[in-house]
Specification:
Distance between the termini of chain A: 14 Å
Shape of chain A: globular
Largest interface: A-B, 43 and 43 residues
Strand content of chain A: 15-25%
Structural class of chain A: alpha/beta
CATH topology of the largest domain in chain A: Quinone Oxidoreductase, Chain A, domain 1
Oligomer: homotetramer
Number of helices of chain A: 13
Chain lengths: 379, 379, 379, 379
């Protein structure tokens, strides 16, 4: 089959590789209809996260079940399914507790959490390919309505829509609350969409890319342009000096200040300022324990010297971590089916697999208009 | 009346000052029977927090109602009451939501949160004195059974018992969970006691003072001695390599390493290591936005460069802040009344008001055996 | 002042009565701008609930603060305010816990819960009058933006909008869930609106009045007409046989079957059928411990012989009771201010106080089009 | 193998039956070390629930894994395991949500929820036998420490300890709360034990069997003897007229009044009286949709005419249903391992399989001292 293969920093290519096969009784093979490129694919792409040469990219996958193992009894061949990026066993303690993001058995390294085509998350190939092997298929796969309707919306169910939603859950967004989302990349936009779905009365989205801010407004959010003024002041003013109830961190350790300087504590510092006393911050932007390319010695060790003294004084809570997709994807699917949610509206490019190398290059350079790329391997 | 007055760093004295009076219709005057010295009294005592000369110390207070204002209709003269250290209006948004720790109206500075005899928390005199004025008395005061029974237990209801309990709430302790409490000072001990009351199956308490560790064991906890080995390793071993479900930070920004060096990120770093993926940390040890005596430039600005990258990777949640005492004190009182809780067992000294200056000195020097001091102004 | 006075069953009149005055330091006097007639006003009107002759009706009130007592320090004269129908002390145990609906001190009878102009809920006059006395004003009153904007929306904040919302809270509605609301009276309509605000993916509203069902559809709900088929079947079909996640009881003990026969267990029976196993039912329709007009001996004693065996077998949870308005009214106000919520759209009649007797008559007869009446005493 | 077989009402015998075998890749075969007789076994035994002749009894099982299917990858041969009485697939919607009690796939009848040797819960044989087949073994089985320690405590993990705990969860028991448990059978006793583990300050247990009440007191509860006075009055007196925060229904539809008359609404009626306004009731005593032996027409249809009017007026919440054992059994196991919980202390008889018919007879007749029977098939 054809697949998007990592060769080294800034070097991906579409190669012919061996087809995946049923290796265990609970495996399924999925024929991929849509596989998205994710912002976190850029971490290995840029050499900011270790990744084995030869790995197949792609953890945002959906498709049609092609084959199932002998122990699979819920999913059947022909089912249209979404594949959560968390690859999880379904029977360990963390899976039992709903934390598929920290499955204790799927990652042979012994670290909690596994994924497809993702650094540090096991040997599993990704789905930017024609076919994908999915272990523990009955547990992992979410059934979708037959056909091709809502393909672009449903393909957001594997990662970024639940991840944005998880951010609002960590940030304790509930009806009537006000929310500030930092970062209008795909995850930030999904957080803004989710905040509205959860009944927030005010949603602010902070970024400096005009096209992303424009997209945020399509979800009913108020755009706050970092490049044209003081963000903290703008949000305090818009909330009568009270600050927001909830804050979302959708940027991560590669935050840049207005001058283009990398400043890993910047977003957390701003959030601690704009979130009111007793409020909550949800962090889904990625921070790593080791960052060889970190700007400072502290950053290289994953240390983020943000204003913890103010966070404590305000009694702010901070929720962090990767989204356990299964906790949310069924309800989010139903919101798509019934017309309440339209996460696919942020897709800027639908491409064939062969166009993936170009897409990585453009997306990495944050070329205007390259918001979200969906690959259709069958196209 | 006599009161413990702050004159400047390392200088407190017992002085004759004006009796408090009913200033507003909702005030009450309390005749203090017990007022404790708190570890956080040492921050101004050591000059590590700004405090006005002439202020009366004491935010851990209980006593008998001596007089009430015209608008007080729940509390009556003669009631035995506990006074939460959070002085709160009872009618603002945060009080409505149960966050009396962030009352929006009681502190004339406009900062959320007010208290008695406490830096940055308003002009209110403390209760290390014969009498105390309590605003919004109906809302703030907790009724206790008549008489003198359980005095030492009940006097812990104004701050440290609820604060320790709050730590376990922020750390999401529930039946069967394992917990590591860092710091075996009074608050850490109360957190250990609370963890047991909440049904934890394993409670570890980390410190290097043998007398405090011995007290921790009286609450059923396992003592972990910082001075004799690697704490992280000890806890990982005792949990079969899994780490604990919940961690409590009961030390604060003045943490010291084994060599006596101040190291403000040390406790958070250890907690991030010992708390398992998906776990929770409750922070009640104090961190300040500004610390003139901070060891580094970052510390002076309240920046704590702990290992946030690992916290994120593990998906740990971090709850912080002062305890809203009213949220817990009634239930904790009932646990005392029915014999389930014995927080007063940590009291090492019961002294008269005149002995307060000596007590401050000894407590500040962490002299062996000075665990918790209760002043009895009437004695 | 003029006020709507109860003389006996089916007999109300507008009378001149004494103006209310500040009786206690925490009282306020409100000049009523809007006072709604509520479905529960019809219980005493019809003689189905004991009510003293001479009482002033009206527990859904808003207006402008005219005067405050000496102990009031948050609310000031001239504030535009909403008055929750629960009259609550703000300092008892239940008020502390957010259950203003069960205040332990406001009702002189000793029963939990007090209200304005309401049977069994204390001697307090209602607000279908020019002026209203509000005890514990700082605690009870919700500030609204100055002016007259959103008057019809804001006047729903005193009762039915929070009550409908409370129903969805008891029924555990969350994003993506499906909900069936039984009863398209004002409270049922507010429940439907609330379910949508909370992100429900499907909302069914069951009734047999076409005008009410049409209103339900304006909130995005699917109307289910009781008079034209089997409700349980209709909802099971629309959910692929699964049933709904959540059910709302917004009818109460006076439920009628299709033939007009009163049948107090009917709605609970239907809910137990349509709510799926593990689901939740929120009951805000009123059931009384004593109902002199009950259809059976059991009904007279408040006994409702619904299908508890099926409820247990399905593991359904049932939340009940009057809404503690203060728990929700601030957030709901903010949803109105920011344009997300439009509860006032159900108002069918805006009348002067003098028109109240006619309104009671028409509303009680469920005359077509009399959905919700708002009285403007100043008009 | 030998097994306890149902032949018809009041007729069980120990028979030789075919050994179970691995039928599907996810099956395991368990060699039973302990299988308890449960009070709900008496429903079919007495002919109050339909049960096929030839079925093997026993849903409270533990033992050693003897064999596993090809798809089992977590559990291994030789593991000592507890088998939750809920037989669940682990991959349906309800299992995903933690409601293994309402698994949508395990019961071929299409009804939610399956079990071993249990009426209406599928064709699965029970474990009062030498061997037991467990489907979806990786998901269902809880690992226990090797050896034979705590056997009597661990054997309570399959049903009654989690069921008692679930009752306290439904009843919202938390530290400092007061609780009334109706029924001092094994489940009621486990609820009392659980309430204490959760930090309740007062636990009342109501029954009329002196031996059971005595056992309740060993868990720190206060016994309330139904046969010697008014229960409601006794509990109101012991709570200063306030009533309890939480109530547990551990009796079910076969409740008897003091005269021995069956009265299915009796316990709910009492609970509605003793639980304070805003409180919660957890119902784990069984109520069935159809009861051929019901005392009244209503009872035959599962209708329980309890005082719903008072429940509503008090705003009480009612949680119901079978316990999803997996939600609690790991934490409860850890409480046993660390010495906090001792559920096995209620065992009155340890018998061989051959003694089962006699045990059914004695247990059904509620012969004094027959509190809880554990069968050891290997003995």
């Amino acid at each position: 089959m054809k697949a998007v293969v990592y060769n080294g920093p800034f070097d991906v290519s579409v190669e012919n590789v061996a087809d995946p096969t049923i290796e265990k009784p609970l495996d399924a093979i999925i024929r991929i209809t849509s596989a998205n490129i994710c912002g976190s694919d850029l971490h290995p792409y840029e050499g900011r996260a270790e990744f084995d040469s030869g790995m197949v990219f792609g953890h945002e996958n959906m498709g049609i079940v092609e084959e199932v193992g002998a122990g699979v009894d819920r999913i059947t061949v022909g089912d249209r399914v979404s594949v959560p990026f968390n690859l999880a066993c379904g029977t360990c303690r963390n899976c039992n507790d709903g934390f598929t993001s920290a499955c204790l058995r799927a990652n042979p390294s012994g670290q909690p959490g596994a994924g497809y085509g993702y650094p540090q998350m096991g040997p599993y190939w990704g789905g930017q390919a024609e076919l994908l092997r999915v272990p523990w298929a009955d547990f992992n796969l979410l059934k979708l309505p037959e056909g091709t309707e809502h393909e672009l919306d449903f393909t957001m169910l594997s990662d970024i829509f639940p991840t944005g939603y998880h951010a609002t859950e960590l940030a304790k967004v509930s009806p009537g609350k006000s929310v500030a989302v930092f970062g209008a990349g795909p995850v930030g936009l999904m957080a803004a969409h989710s905040a509205a779905l959860r009944g927030a009365s005010q949603v602010f989205v902070v970024d400096f890319e005009p096209d992303r801010l424009a997209l945020a407004e399509t979800f009913g959010a108020t755009a706050v342009d970092l490049s044209t003024g003081d963000v903290v002041e703008a949000i305090m003013d818009a909330t009568n000096g009270r600050g927001v109830d909830s804050g979302v961190e959708a940027v991560g350790y590669q935050a840049h200040d207005a001058t283009g300087q990398e400043h890993p504590a910047l977003v957390m510092d701003n959030l601690v300022q704009v979130v009111r006393a007793t409020g909550a911050i949800g962090v889904v932007g990625v921070y790593n324990p080791v960052d060889p390319g970190g700007a400072t010695e502290e950053a290289k060790e994953g240390r983020i010297a943000f204003d913890f003294g103010t966070a404590f004084t305000k009694g702010v809570s901070i929720g962090t971590g990767q989204c356990p997709v299964k906790r949310y994807n069924r309800e989010l699917r139903d919101l798509i089916i019934h017309g309440n949610a339209t996460p696919g509206s942020i897709v800027s490019h639908e491409l064939s697999l062969d166009e993936a190398p170009h897409a990585f290059d453009q997306f990495d350079k944050r070329v205007d208009g390259w918001t979200k790329v969906v690959l259709h391997p069958a196209a």
